[in-house]
């Protein structure tokens, strides 16, 4: 028995659908390995985008590290925010997304039931830039307004959780 998945602009045969699903599994596997982070030591030099003021970026990253930002692979600022409800997580995601669009600078964001991990880096030219540090500070300001909680107080999606 043949099945055809059709949309207005797309028709997939069973073989194509199987390939697509297989590809999706590979991408999920790749994404899961990507979330395993290796943070740099405080003494490791930063990779700064061409054309940026190195002293300014160094100083701003030092301040961000004091605010619990981590540095991944010399050029990615990473922080996880925890929230009491999933609604607050999505509110924070939306606030960051809207500001990112207005600044024409997007992060990688990973959403769970009770947290949002934000990763800032500049792709072209590669490295850290003032856009990254500005947006990291913006994230901290907005998270404070929305109301973060400690990790153990955040909503979870496991059988032992009392949150729904």
From TrEMBL:
Its Enzyme Commission number(s) read 4.2.1.96
What domain of life is recorded for the organism?
Eukaryota
Per the record, a Pfam family? Answer: Pterin_4a
Q: Where is the composition biased (Low complexity)?
A: 30-41
A GO molecular function annotation here is:
4-alpha-hydroxytetrahydrobiopterin dehydratase activity
Q: What InterPro entries would the database entry show?
A: PCD_sf, Pterin_deHydtase
Q: Which UniProt keywords apply?
A: Lyase
Q: Using the UniProt annotation, give all residue ranges assigned to the region (Disordered).
A: 27-50
Q: Which SUPFAM superfamilies match?
A: PCD-like (SSF55248)
The keyword Lyase belongs to this UniProt entry's keyword annotation? yes
Catalytic activity reads: (4aS,6R)-4a-hydroxy-L-erythro-5,6,7,8-tetrahydrobiopterin = (6R)-L-erythro-6,7-dihydrobiopterin + H2O
One GO process term, biological-process aspect: tetrahydrobiopterin biosynthetic process
State the family it belongs to: Belongs to the pterin-4-alpha-carbinolamine dehydratase family.
Stated name of the protein = 4a-hydroxytetrahydrobiopterin dehydratase
């Amino acid at each position: 028995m043949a099945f055809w998945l059709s949309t207005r602009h797309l028709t997939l045969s069973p073989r194509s659908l199987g390939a697509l699903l297989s590809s999706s599994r590979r991408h999920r596997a790749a994404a899961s390995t990507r979330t395993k982070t290796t943070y740099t030591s405080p003494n490791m030099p930063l990779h700064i985008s061409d054309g940026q003021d190195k002293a300014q970026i160094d100083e701003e990253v030092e301040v961000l590290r004091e605010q619990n930002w981590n540095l991944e692979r010399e050029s990615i600022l990473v922080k996880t925010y925890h929230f009491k409800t999933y609604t607050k997580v999505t509110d924070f995601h939306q606030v960051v997304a809207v500001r990112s669009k207005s600044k024409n600078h997007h992060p990688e964001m990973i959403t769970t039931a009770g947290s949002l991990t934000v990763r800032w880096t500049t792709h072209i030219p590669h490295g850290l830039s003032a856009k990254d540090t500005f947006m990291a500070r913006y994230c901290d300001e907005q998270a404070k307004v929305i109301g973060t909680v400690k990790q153990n107080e955040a909503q979870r999606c496991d059988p032992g959780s009392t949150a729904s």
